[in-house]
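Late entry, written up from scratch paper. The run itself happened at the end of the previous shift, but nothing got recorded in the book at the time, so transcribing now.
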Amino acid sequence: MASSSPTPAHRSRVLATPWSGVYGSLIDSGRHFGRHWHDSYGLGLLLQGAQRSASGRGSVDAFAGELITSNPGEVHDGRPLGSDSRRWRMLYLDPEVVAAMGEAAGSGTAELTRPVIADARLRLVLARLFARLDAWQAGPTALAALACEQALLRVLGLLLERYSTAAPRPAEKVAGMAAEMAEVRERLADADAGAVVPSLAELAAPLGLSRYQLLRRFEAVHGLPPHAWLLQLRAERARRLIASGSALADAAAAAGFADQSHMTRVFARHFGLTPGAWRPQ
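Output as recorded:
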């Protein structure tokens, strides 16, 4: 009697996000997936191995480090290529979410034009988004959600501008932005003083801007996106408190950090020194 073939290894997880209509998955699998479709956009990163799949543009091969995409209703499948398994991470977004978050890129009913993408910059911003989503899951704060929202907008901006049928987004002029971005900066400063951290939508609405426009204009004027600017403000506040004699834990809490270890990570990234370096001698 012939022995049956072993069942291919398969491990998968559904990953939450800060937004309704968006979810992620992490899959390590040797399975051959039959033809199917999703009612959402799919955007992912192949982490290990390779795969061959059907797409709206015929059969395509994807290798580790490349991005994979699918449009709502697009029939596709997938199987390992050259090995027994492959590992990938996906993000699925309802069309309404893409339209709302990508409004400045003219997304609307945009169609993604590449089922496999080799783009180092887009891979970097997508990997950063995944890292920020992991941080949000570990500590789902408003500040972490703001970081995720910024990262998602960067991903969608690049994706829609480079690999979709979306209308080109008109170029923006920096001149005249300083006054409106000063208003945004003040709202962020209020958050540093203890108020709830606003979302990009809450920052953009009073100015009649989209979230993507707000993000681009703020960075053009201030050199940092809102999330990084607020972290810098908190780091400076904590540094002054420590220099005046506050305990590290007290300084972290007073400056708005989740805890002392979060403050230490931000200090290392911004200053290249630990918080203790500013203790009075």
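The radius of gyration is 22 Å.
(Scratch paper discarded after transcription.)
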